[in-house]
Design a protein that fits this description.
The chain is an alpha/beta fold. It has 13 helices and 17 strands. The protein is about 30% helix and about 20% strand. Strand 7 (about 185-190), helix 8 (about 200-220) and strand 8 (about 225) form a beta-alpha-beta unit. The chain is globular.
């Protein structure tokens, strides 16, 4: 069981909305730091050193990135924009992992210029990289185990995924990269997303440990680091349990002593690239009830929409909902909780048991600290919401302002006209 608490109350939100109208995402700095420290503690035994490369795509905001960097994390990037954020934060190259696919040469060049670890997705990219910008001294390759490892619901079957090398390709890939001048090598895989079974990650480590030994035997290439990927899930539902990182660590440590040490590959660095489990539970979408509707069902209409959080509409994903000020009230009513997009799947919850809700109530939608704001969009001309950071001392920083119509129209020739139509914010009721 996972308690679904909120680190603030209705009075706090009412004061906050004087300056920051709903909807907005707000992130809890203290929670993020505590999670980062627990992960570092769990893997402190790794002889070569452990590091989590925070998946920037989960929450690409430099204020949040600075928080996790303060806790010793690096960054996993997959695009020019994400690399640019790392550059803005003056991130050392060793702390950037560039894991991309169908990658243009200009992005490889940017990653190389920053000194990032380039993680190749396909055998053909070896020569593409070498001929375009020269083989880096340090290179990593992404392994797709195919039928040897099952994926999960979100990421699908590995043999149907577009990512990574086959086993034969990756062994030949290291041989080829060494011929072209690479001298330091890493091995990576990513075969699950939002997985709550802790044994899954131990099994993934076994897969990579054994492959690292095989690569050494067949190519004489020594793998210096293993990137076990990310995918550690979070308990979106109250009846789910969080992944016990210390349990995962103990399983991986046992395998390390059984496989890596006898093969002479010790000390080995171990990396991961988790984003969701670092920030996800510590983000909240705060939204206000605009309308109540009673037809064939009871509907709660919010001032937010799927444009602010698409996971429920896209995946049917569960996100817990708290009605501020009614945390202890009995859940006596059944509602569909909806937004205002012209799409019937614009629903945060269907047939959800909640306390009786009134117009102007504040709802908090939990676990939006990863793949929440970052997956937003502008369909129907909906504007992206603000992002706030609740600091450890209780203060709040605006870390991304809400979009305006000028922003929305900025790439059109009518941008100047749009700017003239901007008005002061009005009540969302």
């Amino acid at each position: 069981m996972t308690p679904k608490n909120v680190p603030f109350g209705r009075d706090f939100v009412e004061r906050l909305t004087d300056d920051h109208p709903t909807p907005f995402h707000i992130y809890d700095e203290a929670g993020i730091r505590a999670t980062a420290r627990d992960m570092a503690s769990a893997f402190s035994w790794v002889p070569g050193g452990f590091r989590n490369y925070f998946a920037v795509k989960a929450l690409p905001n430099p204020a949040i990135m600075q928080v996790v960097a303060d806790e010793g994390m690096g960054f996993d990037c997959s695009s020019t924009a994400e690399l640019t954020l790392c550059d803005y934060l003056e991130t050392p190259g060793d702390l950037i992992m560039f894991t991309s696919n169908d990658t243009p040469l200009c992005e490889f060049a940017q990653a190389k210029e920053l000194g990032a670890i380039i993680n190749l997705d396909d055998y053909s990219h070896i020569d593409y990289l070498h001929e375009g910008i020269g083989m880096p001294r340090r290179i990593c390759m992404r392994y797709n185990p195919g039928s040897l490892k099952e994926g999960n619901v979100i990421i699908g079957r590995p043999e149907e995924a577009k990512y990574g090398f086959t086993r034969d390709q990756i062994i030949e890939g290291y041989r080829r990269a060494a011929e072209l001048g690479a001298q330091e090598f890493g091995l990576h895989t990513m075969v699950a997303s939002n997985e709550l079974n802790p044994d899954y990650f131990v099994e993934t480590a076994a897969l990579l440990f054994e492959l690292a030994v095989e690569i050494r035997e067949k190519t004489d290439v020594r793998i210096g680091f293993l990137n076990l990927g990310g995918g550690i899930g979070i308990p979106y539902r109250p009846d789910q349990d969080a992944v016990d990182l210390h349990y995962v660590s103990r399983g991986i440590r046992e395998l390390y002593s059984q496989i890596i040490e006898p093969a002479g590959l010790d000390p080995m660095r171990i990396y991961m690239e988790n984003g969701r489990c670092v920030t996800g539970p510590h983000g909240y979408l705060v939204t206000r009830v605009r309308h109540l509707k009673d037809t064939y069902k009871k509907y709660v209409g919010l001032d937010s929409s799927m444009a602010n959080l698409m996971r429920p509409g896209m995946y049917g994903a569960y996100h817990h909902i708290t009605v501020l000020g009614k945390e202890e009230a009995p859940a006596t009513e059944t509602y569909d909780v909806t937004g205002s997009l012209c799409e019937n799947n614009d629903k945060f919850a269907i047939d959800r048991q909640l306390p009786r809700i009134d117009v102007d109530d504040y709802l908090v939608i939990h676990d939006t600290g990863a793949h929440g704001h970052s997956m937003g969009f502008n369909y129907n001309g909906k504007l992206r919401s603000a992002e706030l950071l609740l600091r450890e001392d209780g203060s709040v920083d605006l870390i991304r302002r809400a979009e305006t119509l000028t922003d929305y129209f900025a790439t059109l020739e009518i941008a100047e006209l749009a700017a003239g139509r901007e008005r002061a914010p009005v009540s969302s009721r």
